[in-house]
Amino acid sequence: MKFDKLLEKKNQWLILLLVGLLAVVIALPSGEEQRDVQETETAVPAQTWEDGELEILERKLCGALESVDGVGKAEVMITMEATGKKTVEKDAQTTVRISGGTDQTSGTSSTEQSDSASTVYELDQDGSQTPYVTQETSMTIRGVLVVAQGGGDPVIVQNITEAVMALFGIEAHKIKVMKMS
């Protein structure tokens, strides 16, 4: 008798487990294609830089820093890196399969999930297909050198570093602040 009740409780738990699993599967996407953007390594700012624009950027940064109390006269040099990175749009699809029966040894069903992605193409006027590019970066800031009269003061150095980080979105190790002689 005890064995029958134990077996009945086991079956009830198994049914609850399967109902819960079914609820999870229903909540997952139905397998229809969903648009997703495949991201590549991004660097800020993500735009094309001309030589004249770089000089203007250096002058603007220099002028802004010189107007900060304690910085004094400053010179700025920005180095760029050609990246040539493109972000291509992808169609992502997720498929979930649940086996219909239960495994005799463990008493559970099995679930299998597979993901796939394919490139989205656009049709050109001449009828050819090219990958749909959502973002393109050709030059990114590699490093910034600031030579300033106040570059010997650790507080001023920290303020300059934080300003450059905020403006260009680059890490502190890519910024060097030095004291002007």
List the helices and strands and how they pair.
Layout: H1 2-27, E1 34-37, H2 51-66, E2 74-98, E3 111-119, E4 121-123, E5 129-131, E6 133-148, H3 154-168, E7 175-179
Parallel strand pairs: 6-7
Antiparallel strand pairs: 1-2, 2-3, 2-6, 4-5
What attributes characterize this protein structure?
single chain, 181 residues, five-stranded mixed β-sheet, two-stranded antiparallel sheet, Stage III sporulation protein AG
Please provide the ordered H/E string of secondary-structure elements: HEHEEEEEHE
Radius of gyration: 29 Å
Helix content: 25-40%
Strand content: 35-45%
Major beta sheet summary: 5 strands, mixed
Structure in words:
The chain is an alpha+beta fold and 181 residues long. It has helices spanning 2-27, 51-66, 154-168, and strands spanning 34-37, 74-98, 111-119, 121-123, 129-131, 133-148, 175-179. Strands 1, 2, 3, 6 and 7 form a five-stranded mixed sheet that branches. A two-stranded antiparallel ribbon has the order 4-5.
In short:
Helices cover 31% and strands 36% of the residues.
